[in-house]
Structure formats: C-alpha cells, structure tokens
Amino acid sequence: MRFRTLRQLSSLKLLTFTSNNLIELNGYRFISTLNEQFKSDVLVIGGGIMGLSTAFWVKRSSPSTSVTVIEKDPQYAVCSTPRSVGGIRSHFSLAENVKLSMFSFDFLTRVNEYLNVNPEDVVDIGLVKKGYLYLATQKGLSTLIENHRVQQSCGASTQLLTPQQLKDKWPWLNVDDIALGSYGFDKEGHFDPYRLLMAFRHKAQSLGVNYVHGTVTDFSGSCSPCKVDQVIVDLAKNQSTARYSAQSIIIAGGSECGSLSNQLIAQNKLTTLCPVNRRKRYVFAFKCDSLNGQQVPMLIDPSGVYCRGEGDNFIAGLSPEESEEPETNDLEVDYNFFDEKIWPRLAERCTNFESVKVQSAWAGYYDFNQLDENAIIGRDPVWTNLFWVTGFSGHGIQMGPAVGKCLSELILDGQYKTIDCSRFGFERVIKGERLLETNII
Ligand SMILES: Cc1cc2nc3c(=O)[nH]c(=O)nc-3n(C[C@H](O)[C@H](O)[C@H](O)COP(=O)(O)OP(=O)(O)OC[C@H]3O[C@@H](n4cnc5c(N)ncnc54)[C@H](O)[C@@H]3O)c2cc1C
C-alpha cells in the first residue's frame, strides 16, 4: 500500500497512525511499510540560513529543478540563525570572506526585490547601516594593516584611523593603548536574522521548494563511485519514516554537521569526520544612559569583546578562552561571564560603561569549525552527490545570501561563477590544512 492511499483512507476515519511504523485499520494493528520513497533533484538537510538560501538560489536559477528542504525544528528554537546578532562587515582577513559579505550586503539592501512574494509586500529585515570599528594595540598592528590591504583589494570601504582621528570622531573612546583603528564607511551594519530567515523560507516555498518537517536519522550509500542513495528521514507528520533520494544532497545542518558526518562514516570508512560542532556563546543586552545620543560604532576591542548600541540600548559578547568553553547541553546563560569578562573591558575602553545595567541575555550555538574557524563549502571528497555548507563559526548569517548563490552554481553548473569558494572545500579537512580567518569574533 502506498502512503498517499493510506492517508486518504485515514481521512475516512478507517485508519489511524499510532506510533512509529504502527498503523491501526478498522481496529486491527499492523506494522506498516511506511518507508515511503520520495525523489527530489536537490535535497537540502537543514533549513537554517544556509539551507534556505541554497534552496532559494537553486530554484530561482532553475525553476524546473525540484528542491526539498528537510528541517527538524521549523520553530527554530535552538538553531544558530535566529540566535545570532545579525552583524555584517567587510572586516575579514580572507578575500573570499570580504567578497561574500559584500555580495550579501548588496543583496540585503535589495532584499525586497529578491524575496518579496507579492509585489505589494514589503520585506523588512531591519537593516541598519553602521560601520564596524576594529581597534588594534601595537601587538595587533601588522595584522590590522595586512587585513586592510586585503579588504581594499576587494573594493571594501574600510579605512585606517590614527588614535587622534579615532578620538576626534568618538571623543568617549579610550585610545591610550591603541596603535591604529579600522572603520567601515560602507557595506557594514546589522539586521534581524529571524526576519531574513523567514523571508527566505516564504520566498523559497512560493517558488515551489518543498519544506518538510522531519529529522534526518541516517544515510545509505553505495560505492564505485560512492553515492548517497537514500537519506532516511523521521517525518514529524504521522510519525512515519521516509526515504529520500536525490541527484544532489546538501548538508546544511549547522552545528550538527559533525554528528551527521558520523552517520556517513558508518556507511563508508573513507569518510572524514566533519569538524563542526557546537560552541555556546552569550549575548548580553544592557543600558548605558550616559552614551545615549552618541555615535557608537560596532566596536571590536583588542580583547575580543564586541559591543554595539542604538540610543541607550547596547549588546555585547565575547568568545571565551578555549579552557573556559561552557558546556553545550543547554542554552542557560552565565551572567557572571558579563561581570567578570566583558564589563571590565568595556569600562576600560569607555568610562561611560562603568555604570551599565544588564537587561536581558541569551545564548546560542556557534557552528564552530575546530580546524580553522572557517566555512566548509563544496562537494564531499568521497560521496560524489553530496555537498557541505557549514562551519562559519560566528560569521555565517551575513554570508548566507552569497554562499547560497555560490553553492547553487556549483550544484547546477559544476563551477563557481560569482565568487570562487574553492579554498573552502572539504579537501583541506582531510589534509589537516588550516585556512585561517584572523577576524573571528
Ligand atoms: C550568539 C551568536 C551570535 C552570532 N552573530 C553573528 C553575526 O553577528 N554575524 C554573522 O554573520 N553570524 C553570526 N552568528 C553565526 C550565525 O548565526 C551562523 O553562522 C549561521 O546562522 C549558521 O547558519 P546555518 O544555516 O549553517 O546553521 P543553523 O542556523 O544552525 O541551521 C541548521 C539547521 O539544520 C537543522 N538540522 C540539523 N540537523 C538536522 C537533521 N538531522 N535533520 C533535519 N534538520 C537538521 C537544524 O534544526 C537547523 O535549523 C552568530 C551566532 C551566534 C550563536
């Protein structure tokens, strides 16, 4: 019996679904063969920013290509995208990251054009244009200058400022220990990540992308050449299991890509573990009345503390030392982290921050690439129909629009056209070669 027939029967109240693979028909219980088979040209695992952007671009470029997105949590309670602070900057050390971010910024300024479903709709992602200010002490001076050179070569509007220039522009800033600053005069700012995610989802679905609530639990594959034949999915609806096959399978599972790659290893020992896992990060929201009305950029302190503000409302965060990484089994916030690690550094940078009041806080998981804190994008070296897009380690939301475009080109045309992302390929993981991005926050 086919599932759709069963579903039709169930609407006649003859059949009910009881538990996984158990059906009840006219009072009798059967073990069902609900291993439904579905086919899609492109199958995306994970409906966060990376998965939905990729689905959108594939469908936009090739309307006849069927695209399915499998997402285990359509409410997005835990995933990284809506928990991010939505910052976008050209301040990167790798040319690819600068270019991806600049492409995304242009996309965001024209987001309505790309993502509105009806012409009368207005897609508002709350984009605020505001520069980042990176500060360097003598120790970080050469890195700041070298990064600026890379950014300039990509056409970014970052500019180096001496301590005096910094003081003239932001009189409240303590520049005593600062050798140089770098400020982004264009294509930087922040936006609402959840609104962007929802806009991608609505647009993708309106183009015909099939969005499925389910959890990928396993893969089955065959070799010579190696190919993932089926993706096993626990469907939320009716608690049934389904098997999906596709010409191209994209793993966009964010911080869960490490565990997804474990399932692939069970199929073929040549598979390499994807080094992307969770790292918990806190964001603290606080008030600082005395800075109200001042121009405050997106400040990146040499200590690693970041802070931005609108009016008297500020947010701040910091990545902990490796030895102080918090557990990742819940999203509880450690408020001492603000008092002990963040606040003293803020107060040193600006005396106005000596008296602040924390209003709220949240935690989220970075999709942390343990190899080099950088993206992994591209075809899997073993599984010929499998692609990865993960590991952005805290700078993924801003890359989403551009990365989806580049990956769609690789999937549909076999090569990158907009921005060459080859250096982000999985091959470096196998070789253990790091592609370091020095501007990680
Ligand atoms: C506190 C914080 C601040 C941040 N600030 C910024 C910032 O300012 N700028 C910036 O650019 N980036 C920032 N980031 C990083 C950014 O949020 C991430 O890099 C980005 O959202 C990653 O997107 P993703 O789609 O890869 O992963 P996710 O958003 O995590 O999406 C992955 C999806 O896959 C689904 N999934 C996983 N496993 C399965 C499975 N087996 N079956 C089905 N579905 C599955 C998950 O449910 C999830 O919805 C921040 C992150 C955090 C936590």
Range of helix content: 25-40%
What is the structural class?
Answer: alpha+beta
* Global outline: globular
Bound molecules: flavin-adenine dinucleotide
Percent of residues in beta strands: 25-35%
Residue ranges: pLDDT <50 for 5 or more in a row?
Answer: 1-21
CATH topology of the domain at 38-83 and 194-275 and 371-431: FAD/NAD(P)-binding domain
Number of helices: 12
First-last Cα distance: 54 Å
Strand order of the main beta sheet, please? 9-10-8-16-17-18-15-19
Characterize this entry briefly.
The protein has 441 residues and is an alpha+beta fold. The chain has helices at 3-11, 49-61, 80-83, 95-109, 111-115, 141-153, 163-169, 193-207, 257-267, 336-349, 396-413, 427-431, and strands at 15-19, 22-25, 28-31, 36-45, 67-71, 87-88, 128-129, 132-136, 158-161, 180-184, 189-190, 210-222, 227-235, 241-251, 276-287, 298-300, 306-310, 313-317, 357-369, 376-379, 386-390. Among the domains are: 3-34, no CATH class; 38-83 and 194-275 and 371-431, 3-Layer(bba) Sandwich (FAD/NAD(P)-binding domain), CATH 3.50.50.60.
